[in-house]
Specification:
This protein is about 50% helix and about 20% strand. The protein has about 60 residues and is of the alpha+beta class.
């Protein structure tokens, strides 16, 4: 069964203002994923090949200096 998950690292390096913008970006990306019906497309792809499993990971990483 396909899955879509998100991972985040170092978000604690953000100021409050940056964190608010970051959360909005994450929400926008989630809307894009939902609107594109990616989960359904992944399931269809898996159904087309016996034994195929697809996992999509969206990784957010903040590397501030």
């Amino acid at each position: 069964m396909s899955s879509i998950s998100t991972e985040t690292s170092n978000e604690n390096q953000l100021t409050v203002e940056e964190y608010v913008r970051y959360i909005r970006i994450k929400e926008q990306i989630q809307q894009i994923i939902d609107n594109a019906n990616l989960k359904e497309a992944l399931r269809d792809a898996e159904d087309s090949l016996n034994g195929l499993a697809i996992d999509l990971i969206v990784k957010y990483s903040v590397n501030k200096k």
